[in-house]
Amino acid sequence: DDARQRIAEARAAGFDVIAWTFADDAFDRRFGAGAEELRRALGHGVDAVFTDSPSTAARVRPALGARP
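Predicted structure:
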């Protein structure tokens, strides 16, 4: 998994990293669903997310120490 390295490269090039679209009803075999998928993305250091489930993102974000 090279997500952290790609995020670091994008930042070094002057970009913000924004991931989308997260939803509680979506499932991916690699990442899980809803909160787990958001935890992974925020844990990898993305700058922002688009989500269909804002209450889940609001619950997950502070638990990871992610910025508002």
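Summary: The chain has three helices and four strands.
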